[in-house]
Specification:
Number of helices: 10
Number of domains: 2
CATH topology of the largest domain: D-Maltodextrin-Binding Protein, domain 2
Helix content: 40-55%
Structural class: alpha/beta
Shape: elongated
Strand order of the largest sheet: 4-3-5-12-6
Largest sheet: 5 strands, mixed
Strand content: 15-25%
Length: 306
Amino acid sequence: MTLQQLKYIIKIAECGSITEAANRLFISQPSLSAAVKEIEGEFQIEIFSRQPTGVALTPDGSEFLSYARQVIEQAELMRERYTGEKPSKRLCSISTQHYSFAVDAFIELLLGLNVDEYEFTLRETRTQEIIDDVKNLRSEIGVIYLSDFNEKVIKKLLKENQLQFSFLFEANAHVFISRKHPLSGKNIVTLEDLKDYPFLAFEQGSYNSFYFSEEILSTVIRKKTIYVSDRATLFNLLIGLNGYTICSGFLGGDISGGDIISVPLLTDEKMRVGFIVNNNTRLSPEGKEYILKLKRIIKKHGYNIT
């Protein structure tokens, strides 16, 4: 085993693909594959399993990756201590559902860094992909929500993949609508009020199950539904079509220049927002700091933090 081989394993896990990792490492794919086979043979484990879209960590691979990262981290600390060599660029990846507070915390994290180089990733993506990212350690942290409707299914999936959910805050249901929407003057709206307006939701691809929806009350039958893949498109459609989406009500940053407002929705359903981590690894200092930033921003907006 060499430090270089450990770095290869880490890069493959980050990319989810041996081909992509080889490109980024500027080595041939056969050479990289041979290095993986060599280290798997040495430790008598399978680190990666082949998938239609690339590779995924096996349970043994997740545990091995955790140790590999610790070894590389300690080696860099030794070099810095005894040679004065600069530590390598800081790395951190976060996957999240489409939440403004998750982006705001990411911005604060980067603004507070005191390093010369970093390579961070923020993925606003689908629920299943967030779970896969954290399972395969492509992301340290995933931000999702639970509700009475989806909790049993999602927690079962998390347990099967050795992931842990930590609660952040509970939010009452709201809708995002345009400031010029006909219902914008109401203090509270009902599903009946909304029935003639287009409902905007984030599409979940091949995992388009009600349980993976980012919006609570996903099983309600609606006259008009539009699925989108990013927040900018959703906000444009909210404004252009007098549409609405169901959310936590958290209006962070300067969403659409103030053209979007949050109005409470009359329902007993609540969103329990939290983050997931992999039980087989430990968070980097940047990952820990990101969670602190999340909590600070959430508390700043009046939510109770556990």
